[in-house]
Protein backbone atom coordinates (compact mmCIF):
# COMPACT_ATOMS: atom_id res chain seq x y z
CA UNK A 1 0.00 0.00 0.00
CA UNK A 2 1.20 3.52 -0.71
CA UNK A 3 2.15 5.51 2.39
CA UNK A 4 3.36 8.68 0.70
CA UNK A 5 7.02 7.65 0.62
CA UNK A 6 6.85 7.58 -3.20
CA UNK A 7 6.33 11.36 -3.00
CA UNK A 8 9.60 12.03 -1.17
CA UNK A 9 12.31 13.89 -3.03
CA UNK A 10 15.47 12.30 -1.69
CA UNK A 11 17.98 15.14 -1.44
CA UNK A 12 20.53 12.97 0.31
CA UNK A 13 20.68 10.50 -2.60
CA UNK A 14 20.64 13.29 -5.22
CA UNK A 15 23.47 15.09 -3.41
CA UNK A 16 25.51 11.87 -3.18
CA UNK A 17 25.26 11.40 -6.97
CA UNK A 18 26.20 15.03 -7.59
CA UNK A 19 29.20 14.70 -5.26
CA UNK A 20 30.39 11.60 -7.13
CA UNK A 21 30.23 13.48 -10.45
CA UNK A 22 32.07 16.47 -8.95
CA UNK A 23 34.78 14.13 -7.62
CA UNK A 24 35.37 12.77 -11.13
CA UNK A 25 35.52 16.25 -12.63
CA UNK A 26 37.87 17.50 -9.91
CA UNK A 27 40.12 14.54 -10.54
CA UNK A 28 40.17 15.29 -14.29
CA UNK A 29 40.99 18.98 -13.68
CA UNK A 30 43.91 17.95 -11.49
CA UNK A 31 45.14 15.22 -13.85
CA UNK A 32 44.86 17.33 -17.03
CA UNK A 33 45.76 20.80 -15.79
CA UNK A 34 47.46 20.33 -12.40
CA UNK A 35 44.76 22.38 -10.67
CA UNK A 36 43.67 21.10 -7.25
CA UNK A 37 40.36 22.89 -6.48
CA UNK A 38 40.76 24.49 -3.05
CA UNK A 39 38.11 25.88 -0.72
CA UNK A 40 38.90 28.16 2.24
CA UNK A 41 36.28 27.94 4.99
CA UNK A 42 36.32 30.72 7.57
CA UNK A 43 34.45 30.53 10.85
CA UNK A 44 34.29 33.20 13.56
CA UNK A 45 33.21 32.21 17.07
CA UNK A 46 31.87 29.03 18.61
CA UNK A 47 28.28 28.63 17.35
CA UNK A 48 27.77 24.84 17.65
CA UNK A 49 25.55 24.48 14.57
CA UNK A 50 28.04 26.48 12.47
CA UNK A 51 30.86 24.25 13.73
CA UNK A 52 28.92 21.19 12.50
CA UNK A 53 28.31 22.73 9.06
CA UNK A 54 31.95 23.80 8.73
CA UNK A 55 33.17 20.29 9.57
CA UNK A 56 30.73 18.85 7.02
CA UNK A 57 32.01 21.23 4.36
CA UNK A 58 35.64 20.42 5.06
CA UNK A 59 34.94 16.66 4.98
CA UNK A 60 32.79 16.87 1.83
CA UNK A 61 35.48 18.93 0.06
CA UNK A 62 38.13 16.35 0.83
CA UNK A 63 35.84 13.44 -0.10
CA UNK A 64 35.33 15.13 -3.47
CA UNK A 65 39.08 15.00 -4.07
CA UNK A 66 39.51 18.72 -3.48
CA UNK A 67 41.56 20.59 -0.87
CA UNK A 68 40.11 22.53 2.05
CA UNK A 69 41.75 25.13 4.26
CA UNK A 70 39.90 25.93 7.48
CA UNK A 71 40.42 29.18 9.41
CA UNK A 72 38.88 29.67 12.84
CA UNK A 73 38.88 33.13 14.44
CA UNK A 74 37.81 33.69 18.08
CA UNK A 75 34.31 35.02 18.83
CA UNK A 76 35.74 38.44 19.80
CA UNK A 77 37.72 38.85 16.56
CA UNK A 78 37.36 42.29 14.99
CA UNK A 79 35.99 43.02 11.54
CA UNK A 80 39.45 44.28 10.60
CA UNK A 81 41.04 40.94 11.55
CA UNK A 82 38.51 39.09 9.43
CA UNK A 83 38.99 41.48 6.50
CA UNK A 84 42.78 41.01 6.74
CA UNK A 85 42.34 37.23 6.53
CA UNK A 86 39.97 37.55 3.55
CA UNK A 87 42.44 39.85 1.77
CA UNK A 88 45.18 37.22 2.20
CA UNK A 89 42.90 34.46 0.84
CA UNK A 90 41.88 36.69 -2.09
CA UNK A 91 45.57 37.17 -2.94
CA UNK A 92 46.46 33.45 -2.64
CA UNK A 93 46.37 31.88 -6.13
CA UNK A 94 46.15 28.36 -4.65
CA UNK A 95 42.74 29.23 -3.13
CA UNK A 96 39.82 29.08 -5.61
CA UNK A 97 36.82 29.41 -3.30
CA UNK A 98 36.30 31.36 -0.06
CA UNK A 99 33.34 31.28 2.29
CA UNK A 100 32.66 32.87 5.66
CA UNK A 101 30.27 30.73 7.66
CA UNK A 102 27.15 32.69 8.70
CA UNK A 103 26.08 34.05 11.08
CA UNK A 104 29.07 36.19 12.10
CA UNK A 105 29.24 37.77 15.61
CA UNK A 106 27.39 41.06 16.03
CA UNK A 107 30.55 43.27 16.15
CA UNK A 108 31.20 42.31 12.52
CA UNK A 109 29.17 43.78 9.64
CA UNK A 110 28.06 40.80 7.57
CA UNK A 111 27.70 42.68 4.29
CA UNK A 112 31.12 44.34 4.61
CA UNK A 113 32.65 40.88 4.99
CA UNK A 114 30.71 39.26 2.14
CA UNK A 115 31.59 42.11 -0.20
CA UNK A 116 35.29 41.81 0.70
CA UNK A 117 35.53 38.34 -0.86
CA UNK A 118 36.77 38.47 -4.45
CA UNK A 119 33.66 37.86 -6.62
CA UNK A 120 35.50 35.18 -8.62
CA UNK A 121 36.16 33.26 -5.36
CA UNK A 122 32.71 33.87 -3.84
CA UNK A 123 31.44 30.28 -3.99
CA UNK A 124 28.52 31.11 -1.66
CA UNK A 125 27.26 33.60 -4.26
CA UNK A 126 26.58 36.24 -1.59
CA UNK A 127 28.83 39.05 -2.93
CA UNK A 128 26.83 42.04 -4.19
CA UNK A 129 28.28 41.57 -7.69
CA UNK A 130 27.16 37.93 -7.88
CA UNK A 131 23.76 38.86 -6.41
CA UNK A 132 23.49 41.57 -9.08
CA UNK A 133 24.42 39.20 -11.88
CA UNK A 134 21.67 36.81 -10.79
CA UNK A 135 19.18 39.67 -10.41
CA UNK A 136 19.67 40.77 -14.04
CA UNK A 137 19.61 37.20 -15.36
CA UNK A 138 23.30 36.85 -16.16
CA UNK A 139 24.67 33.31 -15.96
CA UNK A 140 28.33 34.19 -15.39
CA UNK A 141 28.26 34.56 -11.60
CA UNK A 142 27.96 32.22 -8.63
CA UNK A 143 24.44 31.31 -7.49
CA UNK A 144 23.82 30.75 -3.74
CA UNK A 145 24.02 27.06 -2.87
CA UNK A 146 20.68 26.47 -1.13
CA UNK A 147 18.46 27.95 -3.88
CA UNK A 148 20.58 26.19 -6.51
CA UNK A 149 20.04 22.89 -4.70
CA UNK A 150 16.29 23.55 -4.40
CA UNK A 151 16.09 24.19 -8.14
CA UNK A 152 17.89 20.92 -8.92
CA UNK A 153 15.53 18.95 -6.68
CA UNK A 154 12.50 20.68 -8.18
CA UNK A 155 13.63 19.95 -11.74
CA UNK A 156 14.24 16.31 -10.83
CA UNK A 157 10.46 15.93 -10.48
CA UNK A 158 9.33 18.65 -12.93
CA UNK A 159 11.94 19.23 -15.65
CA UNK A 160 10.13 22.20 -17.25
CA UNK A 161 8.95 24.87 -14.83
CA UNK A 162 7.63 27.27 -17.48
CA UNK A 163 4.21 28.68 -16.67
CA UNK A 164 4.09 27.32 -13.13
CA UNK A 165 2.80 29.46 -10.25
CA UNK A 166 5.47 29.49 -7.55
CA UNK A 167 5.32 30.91 -4.04
CA UNK A 168 8.52 31.56 -2.11
CA UNK A 169 7.81 32.01 1.59
CA UNK A 170 10.60 34.17 3.02
CA UNK A 171 12.65 36.92 1.40
CA UNK A 172 16.16 36.41 2.81
CA UNK A 173 19.20 37.31 0.72
CA UNK A 174 20.55 33.77 1.19
CA UNK A 175 17.50 31.81 0.06
CA UNK A 176 14.21 33.57 -0.71
CA UNK A 177 15.34 36.38 -3.01
CA UNK A 178 17.79 34.35 -5.15
CA UNK A 179 15.29 31.46 -5.25
CA UNK A 180 12.60 33.77 -6.64
CA UNK A 181 15.01 35.05 -9.30
CA UNK A 182 15.98 31.53 -10.37
CA UNK A 183 12.35 30.44 -10.60
CA UNK A 184 11.46 33.51 -12.64
CA UNK A 185 14.32 32.73 -15.04
CA UNK A 186 12.88 29.21 -15.40
CA UNK A 187 9.58 30.73 -16.53
CA UNK A 188 7.59 30.57 -13.29
CA UNK A 189 5.23 33.31 -12.17
CA UNK A 190 6.64 34.03 -8.73
CA UNK A 191 5.13 35.47 -5.55
CA UNK A 192 7.48 36.18 -2.65
CA UNK A 193 5.85 36.42 0.76
CA UNK A 194 7.53 38.10 3.75
CA UNK A 195 6.81 39.35 7.25
CA UNK A 196 4.42 42.06 6.00
CA UNK A 197 2.41 39.77 3.70
CA UNK A 198 -1.26 39.93 4.78
CA UNK A 199 -2.32 36.36 4.02
CA UNK A 200 0.52 33.91 3.34
CA UNK A 201 -1.89 30.95 3.36
CA UNK A 202 -4.03 32.46 0.59
CA UNK A 203 -0.95 33.16 -1.56
CA UNK A 204 0.31 29.61 -1.00
CA UNK A 205 -3.03 27.99 -1.93
CA UNK A 206 -2.63 29.30 -5.51
CA UNK A 207 0.82 27.77 -5.95
CA UNK A 208 1.91 24.78 -8.05
CA UNK A 209 5.33 25.10 -6.40
CA UNK A 210 5.87 26.05 -2.76
CA UNK A 211 9.33 26.95 -1.43
CA UNK A 212 9.18 27.28 2.35
CA UNK A 213 12.12 29.35 3.62
CA UNK A 214 10.72 31.34 6.52
CA UNK A 215 12.69 29.82 9.41
CA UNK A 216 9.48 29.00 11.31
CA UNK A 217 8.86 25.38 12.33
CA UNK A 218 5.70 23.85 10.86
CA UNK A 219 4.44 27.17 9.40
CA UNK A 220 3.02 25.66 6.19
CA UNK A 221 -0.14 23.69 7.01
CA UNK A 222 -1.95 20.97 5.09
CA UNK A 223 -4.85 23.22 4.06
CA UNK A 224 -2.40 25.74 2.49
CA UNK A 225 -1.47 23.28 -0.24
CA UNK A 226 -3.19 23.06 -3.62
CA UNK A 227 -3.71 19.36 -4.49
CA UNK A 228 -0.74 18.15 -6.54
CA UNK A 229 1.63 20.98 -5.60
CA UNK A 230 5.37 20.37 -5.24
CA UNK A 231 6.70 21.42 -1.83
CA UNK A 232 10.36 22.23 -1.14
CA UNK A 233 11.13 22.69 2.55
CA UNK A 234 14.22 24.80 3.27
CA UNK A 235 13.60 25.14 7.00
CA UNK A 236 16.08 23.82 9.56
CA UNK A 237 14.52 24.36 12.97
CA UNK A 238 15.68 22.59 16.13
CA UNK A 239 12.70 21.77 18.35
CA UNK A 240 12.64 20.20 21.81
CA UNK A 241 11.10 16.75 22.20
CA UNK A 242 10.67 14.42 25.17
CA UNK A 243 13.79 12.56 24.04
CA UNK A 244 15.88 15.70 23.55
CA UNK A 245 15.67 17.69 20.32
CA UNK A 246 15.26 17.14 16.62
CA UNK A 247 15.37 19.10 13.36
CA UNK A 248 12.10 19.96 11.61
CA UNK A 249 11.33 22.03 8.54
CA UNK A 250 9.03 24.98 7.88
CA UNK A 251 6.37 22.57 6.60
CA UNK A 252 3.96 20.58 8.81
CA UNK A 253 5.11 17.48 6.96
CA UNK A 254 2.46 14.92 8.02
CA UNK A 255 -0.37 17.33 7.18
CA UNK A 256 1.09 18.43 3.85
CA UNK A 257 2.15 15.01 2.53
CA UNK A 258 -1.38 13.84 1.52
CA UNK A 259 -1.96 17.00 -0.56
CA UNK A 260 1.41 17.32 -2.28
CA UNK A 261 2.55 15.52 -5.43
CA UNK A 262 6.15 15.62 -4.20
CA UNK A 263 7.87 16.96 -1.10
CA UNK A 264 11.38 17.25 0.36
CA UNK A 265 11.86 15.82 3.86
CA UNK A 266 13.79 17.52 6.66
CA UNK A 267 16.40 16.28 7.29
CA UNK A 268 17.58 14.66 4.07
CA UNK A 269 16.05 17.06 1.54
CA UNK A 270 17.49 20.48 0.76
CA UNK A 271 20.25 20.48 3.42
CA UNK A 272 22.56 17.95 1.75
CA UNK A 273 22.15 19.81 -1.56
CA UNK A 274 23.55 23.02 -0.02
CA UNK A 275 26.92 21.36 0.53
CA UNK A 276 26.92 19.50 -2.81
CA UNK A 277 26.27 22.79 -4.64
CA UNK A 278 29.09 24.45 -2.68
CA UNK A 279 31.44 21.78 -4.05
CA UNK A 280 30.09 22.38 -7.54
CA UNK A 281 30.68 26.13 -7.25
CA UNK A 282 34.21 25.49 -5.94
CA UNK A 283 34.96 23.23 -8.91
CA UNK A 284 33.65 25.93 -11.28
CA UNK A 285 35.78 28.59 -9.53
CA UNK A 286 38.87 26.44 -10.02
CA UNK A 287 38.00 25.70 -13.65
CA UNK A 288 37.48 29.39 -14.41
CA UNK A 289 41.13 30.11 -13.55
CA UNK A 290 42.01 28.26 -16.78
CA UNK A 291 40.34 30.93 -18.90
CA UNK A 292 41.24 33.90 -16.66
N1 LIG B 1 28.35 30.89 4.47
C1 LIG B 1 27.21 30.23 4.63
N2 LIG B 1 26.59 30.21 5.82
C2 LIG B 1 25.42 29.54 5.95
C3 LIG B 1 24.85 28.83 4.86
C4 LIG B 1 25.52 28.89 3.61
O1 LIG B 1 25.06 28.31 2.58
N3 LIG B 1 26.70 29.59 3.54
N4 LIG B 1 23.71 28.05 5.04
C5 LIG B 1 23.27 27.74 6.40
C6 LIG B 1 23.96 26.57 7.05
N5 LIG B 1 24.41 25.49 6.15
C7 LIG B 1 25.57 25.66 5.50
O2 LIG B 1 26.36 26.48 5.77
C8 LIG B 1 23.77 24.20 6.13
C9 LIG B 1 22.64 23.94 6.86
C10 LIG B 1 22.08 22.66 6.88
C11 LIG B 1 22.64 21.62 6.18
C12 LIG B 1 22.12 20.23 6.24
O3 LIG B 1 22.61 19.34 5.58
N6 LIG B 1 21.11 19.97 7.08
C13 LIG B 1 20.63 18.61 7.33
C14 LIG B 1 20.16 18.50 8.76
C15 LIG B 1 21.23 18.93 9.73
C16 LIG B 1 21.03 18.44 11.13
O4 LIG B 1 20.48 17.38 11.34
O5 LIG B 1 21.54 19.17 12.03
C17 LIG B 1 19.48 18.26 6.42
O6 LIG B 1 18.70 19.18 6.09
O7 LIG B 1 19.36 17.10 6.06
C18 LIG B 1 23.78 21.88 5.43
C19 LIG B 1 24.32 23.15 5.41
C20 LIG B 1 23.49 28.95 7.29
N7 LIG B 1 24.81 29.48 7.15
MG1 LIG C 1 16.76 19.06 4.31
Automatic annotation (TrEMBL):
<dbReference type="Pfam" id="PF02882">
    <property type="entry name" value="THF_DHG_CYH_C"/>
</dbReference>
<keyword id="KW-0378">Hydrolase</keyword>
<dbReference type="InterPro" id="IPR046346">
    <property type="entry name" value="Aminoacid_DH-like_N_sf"/>
</dbReference>
<dbReference type="InterPro" id="IPR020631">
    <property type="entry name" value="THF_DH/CycHdrlase_NAD-bd_dom"/>
</dbReference>
<keyword id="KW-0554">One-carbon metabolism</keyword>
<dbReference type="GO" id="GO:0035999">
    <property type="term" value="P:tetrahydrofolate interconversion"/>
</dbReference>
<dbReference type="Pfam" id="PF00763">
    <property type="entry name" value="THF_DHG_CYH"/>
</dbReference>
<dbReference type="GO" id="GO:0005829">
    <property type="term" value="C:cytosol"/>
</dbReference>
<comment type="subunit">
    <text>Homodimer.</text>
</comment>
<dbReference type="GO" id="GO:0000105">
    <property type="term" value="P:L-histidine biosynthetic process"/>
</dbReference>
<dbReference type="InterPro" id="IPR000672">
    <property type="entry name" value="THF_DH/CycHdrlase"/>
</dbReference>
<feature type="domain" description="Tetrahydrofolate dehydrogenase/cyclohydrolase NAD(P)-binding">
    <location>
        <begin position="144"/>
        <end position="288"/>
    </location>
</feature>
<keyword id="KW-0521">NADP</keyword>
<feature type="binding site">
    <location>
        <begin position="170"/>
        <end position="172"/>
    </location>
    <ligand>
        <name>NADP(+)</name>
    </ligand>
</feature>
<comment type="similarity">
    <text>Belongs to the tetrahydrofolate dehydrogenase/cyclohydrolase family.</text>
</comment>
<dbReference type="InterPro" id="IPR036291">
    <property type="entry name" value="NAD(P)-bd_dom_sf"/>
</dbReference>
<dbReference type="InterPro" id="IPR020867">
    <property type="entry name" value="THF_DH/CycHdrlase_CS"/>
</dbReference>
<keyword id="KW-0486">Methionine biosynthesis</keyword>
<keyword id="KW-0028">Amino-acid biosynthesis</keyword>
<keyword id="KW-0560">Oxidoreductase</keyword>
<keyword id="KW-0368">Histidine biosynthesis</keyword>
<dbReference type="GO" id="GO:0009086">
    <property type="term" value="P:methionine biosynthetic process"/>
</dbReference>
<keyword id="KW-0511">Multifunctional enzyme</keyword>
<comment type="function">
    <text>Catalyzes the oxidation of 5,10-methylenetetrahydrofolate to 5,10-methenyltetrahydrofolate and then the hydrolysis of 5,10-methenyltetrahydrofolate to 10-formyltetrahydrofolate.</text>
</comment>
<feature type="binding site">
    <location>
        <position position="236"/>
    </location>
    <ligand>
        <name>NADP(+)</name>
    </ligand>
</feature>
<dbReference type="GO" id="GO:0004477">
    <property type="term" value="F:methenyltetrahydrofolate cyclohydrolase activity"/>
</dbReference>
<comment type="pathway">
    <text>One-carbon metabolism; tetrahydrofolate interconversion.</text>
</comment>
<protein>
    <recommendedName>
        <fullName>Bifunctional protein FolD</fullName>
        <ecNumber>1.5.1.5</ecNumber>
        <ecNumber>3.5.4.9</ecNumber>
    </recommendedName>
</protein>
<keyword id="KW-0658">Purine biosynthesis</keyword>
<feature type="domain" description="Tetrahydrofolate dehydrogenase/cyclohydrolase catalytic">
    <location>
        <begin position="9"/>
        <end position="124"/>
    </location>
</feature>
<dbReference type="GO" id="GO:0004488">
    <property type="term" value="F:methylenetetrahydrofolate dehydrogenase (NADP+) activity"/>
</dbReference>
<dbReference type="GO" id="GO:0006164">
    <property type="term" value="P:purine nucleotide biosynthetic process"/>
</dbReference>
<dbReference type="InterPro" id="IPR020630">
    <property type="entry name" value="THF_DH/CycHdrlase_cat_dom"/>
</dbReference>
Amino acid sequence: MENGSEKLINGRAFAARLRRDIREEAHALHAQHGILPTLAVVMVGEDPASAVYVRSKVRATEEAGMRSVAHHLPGDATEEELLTLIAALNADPSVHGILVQLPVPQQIRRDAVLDAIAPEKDVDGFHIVNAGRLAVGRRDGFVPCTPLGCLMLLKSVLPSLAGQQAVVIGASNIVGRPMAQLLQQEGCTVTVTHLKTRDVAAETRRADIVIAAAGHAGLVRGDWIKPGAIVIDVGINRVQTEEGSRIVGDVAFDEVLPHAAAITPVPGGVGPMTIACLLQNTLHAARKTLSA
